[in-house]
UniProtKB/TrEMBL annotation:
This is ABC-type glycine betaine transport, periplasmic subunit. Residues 33-275 form the ABC-type glycine betaine transport system substrate-binding domain. Pfam families: OpuAC (PF04069). InterPro entries: ABC_Gly_betaine_transp_sub-bd (IPR007210). Gene3D superfamilies: Glycine betaine-binding periplasmic protein, domain 2 (3.40.190.100), Periplasmic binding protein-like II (3.40.190.10).
């Protein structure tokens, strides 16, 4: 009898193991940690915080990894980063995708109208195109203020300086340092050229115009959500949610301003989720 009971218990345990009895099986989100790449750009923060909050509510553990764009793409390609919410395609990040895209999945379009280029204050008259700068470089102290070395906009801007034959120095720095310099000059009503993109609070705080680019270096980009190519099998529910992700560019811009005004990114994300429950349910397929 005792032998029979032992055999029964062992058989039960084997069956449970095979069909996944219990709450701690490997497929459960509770056992999965997801990593999200976060660049220094303000546009990355709101969608990352919103998606993170939703994923945590789904039962996943979520960690953020801060890196420049190149580091994020490298991390995606190696599997160290699972998700990136702020990929500018097809143009601005094409070099990264050409290098790392073989092991990266492009899962959805976050928003289709990400405008970017060289910007000047609207009080700068007679400069409406990049071509208009030629011969007037001294007006801007022969400088254009940009973001970090290696960024897609940096590389494109350096190509533009040569292509348009401009006597300009590209001053590379962080987004914050670029904006601080531009803000200082704008406060004094002085001419300045810097990089600009939407969504960004600079277009809310200041009257700016994006210069026309006749040679077509900068084009309106779509902002995409990327994952590494292992996520679909590692966390299929998360992958399905991200494949349905979308948000309006004006909402991103509004949230960036709120964060700049001192509201925590987590609180901003929670407010958006609370206000958009139907949209969230649709992305979750519920």
């Amino acid at each position: 009898m005792l032998k029979f009971i032992k055999i029964f218990i062992m058989s039960f345990l084997i069956i449970c193991s095979s069909i996944g009895c219990g709450s701690n099986n490997a497929a459960s989100p509770k056992n999965i940690t997801l990593t999200m790449g976060v660049t220094p750009w303000s546009s990355t923060v709101p969608p990352t915080k919103i998606a993170k909050s939703i994923l945590v509510n789904m039962g996943y553990k979520v960690e953020e990894i801060s890196a420049d764009a190149g580091g994020v793409y490298a991390g995606l390609s190696k599997g160290d980063i699972d998700i990136f919410m702020d990929s500018w395609l097809p143009d601005m990040h094409k070099n990264y995708m050409n290098t790392f895209g073989r092991t990266i999945d492009d899962v959805s379009v976050s928003y289709p109208n990400g405008e970017l280029g060289w910007v000047v204050p609207t009080y700068v008259e007679g400069i409406d195109s990049v071509a208009d700068i030629k011969g007037k470089e001294s007006l801007f102290d022969k400088k254009i203020y940009g973001i970090e070395e290696g960024a897609g906009m940096t590389m494109t801007s350096k190509e533009m300086i040569k292509a348009y034959g401009l006597d300009l120095e590209y001053v590379a720095s962080s987004e914050g340092a670029m904006l601080a310099q531009a803000s200082k000059l704008i406060a004094s009503k002085k001419p300045v050229i810097c990089l600009g993109w939407r969504p960004h609070p600079m277009f809310v705080k200041y009257q700016l115009k994006v210069l026309k680019d006749p040679k077509g270096f900068f084009k309106t980009s779509e902002v995409h959500v990327l994952t590494n190519n292992k996520l679909k099998n590692k966390a299929p529910e998360a992958y399905n949610f991200l494949s349905k992700w979308n948000i309006d560019v004006s909402e991103i811009e509004k949230m960036i301003v709120e964060i700049d005004n001192g509201i925590s990114p987590e609180d901003v994300a929670k407010a958006w989720i609370d206000k958009n429950k139907d949209k969230v349910d649709k992305m979750l397929g519920t």
